[in-house]
Write a structure and sequence with these properties.
disordered C terminus; Acetoacetate decarboxylase-like; 15 strands; mainly beta; about 300 residues; 7-stranded mixed β-barrel
Length: about 300
């Protein structure tokens, strides 16, 4: 299997690269490999830990500036697949509150994009003290779980035709920094690349690869608490193991997406002053060996 450097056409008014500015929360979870396999093509080998888990989670972003102005995005990450010498993420579902961004993600990137509704409110929170290993690490770098006083509750629903289905509620704790004299508490300036595979959807059956080039200030934060669609279950949160038997929707994959969101978090990173550049995706094709198709101008490399 190989990665063709042919760039696919743009769906936005302006061509690639596309620039997004804003902030985001990137949270990694331990996801059962059997759940991730529902979304990941069989030809890919899943990166597993402890024999049954992979790294999935979610990417929750608010873009203040983009090719389609402001919008919010939730990317549910099914898991991680091998792409020697590194690895790539695979998105199980994408929700955006902008129809043009939804169409672009579907057509050009082969993403499982849908239109969503994002509602946000801030709530007061009682101070809590904890001495586990992760919180001790936060204390060492200038943060303390016992200092956060409030959290932001983001409720996310999916719009399917005329139906609105509750997906989840994400409670993001606010961390009061110990340093107030400057902005160093927001973390160091970093540059990183987040590689991804996509495609194999009804809107784009091709297998694609793309990378998000990020520049931002990054800091570790307390993991956000994710709750399931409680309006469908009453006051209690749904049991993760029972989601597959529920009748939330005719789309059976929605239940697996909720399972991913409700899985155990292992790391949460906050991105501030985010600048994310996304180039047009490249086409992944099958090929027996590395070569250059000089007559067509297509360059192949093994992945």
């Amino acid at each position: 299997m190989e990665d063709s450097k042919v760039q696919l056409s743009s769906g936005y008014a302006m061509g690639p690269p596309w620039l997004f500015k804003g902030s985001a929360l990137y949270q990694l979870h331990l996801v059962k490999a059997e759940i991730a396999r529902v979304f990941i093509p069989k030809e890919f080998k899943i990166v597993e830990a402890f024999g049954r888990y992979t790294l999935g989670g979610f990417f929750l972003a608010r873009y203040d500036d983009s090719p389609v102005a402001k919008f919010d995005e939730l990317v549910v990450i099914a898991g991680t697949v091998w792409n020697p010498p590194t690895s790539c993420a695979w998105a199980a579902r994408v929700l955006v509150n902008n129809e043009e961004a939804c169409r672009h993600g579907r057509k050009e990137f082969g993403l499982p994009s849908n239109v969503g509704i994002f509602s946000e409110q801030k709530s007061a929170e009682v101070r809590v003290k904890s001495k586990n290993m992760y919180n001790c690490f936060l204390n060492m770098i200038g943060f303390s779980r016992s200092s956060w006083k409030e959290h932001t509750e983001v409720k996310i629903s999916e719009v399917n035709d005329s139906n609105i289905m509750s997906l989840c509620s994400i409670s993001i704790p606010y961390l009061e920094p110990k340093l107030h004299s400057d902005d160093r508490w927001m973390g160091p300036k970093i540059k990183m690349s987040l590689p991804n595979f996509s495609g194999r959807t009804i809107h784009n059956p091709l297998l694609l690869k793309y990378a998000c080039q990020l520049e931002c200030r990054m800091r570790p934060v307390m993991a956000a608490k994710v709750s399931g669609p409680t309006s469908n279950y009453g006051e209690d949160e749904p049991d993760v193991d029972c989601l597959n038997n529920s009748k939330l929707t005719e789309d059976k994959t929605l239940n697996q997406c909720i399972s991913i969101l409700l899985s155990k978090p292992v790391l949460a990173l906050e991105f501030n002053f985010l600048k994310m550049q996304v180039n047009a995706p490249t086409l992944v094709v099958s090929h027996s060996k590395n070569n250059v198709a000089e007559d067509s101008g297509v360059f192949y490399e093994r992945i």
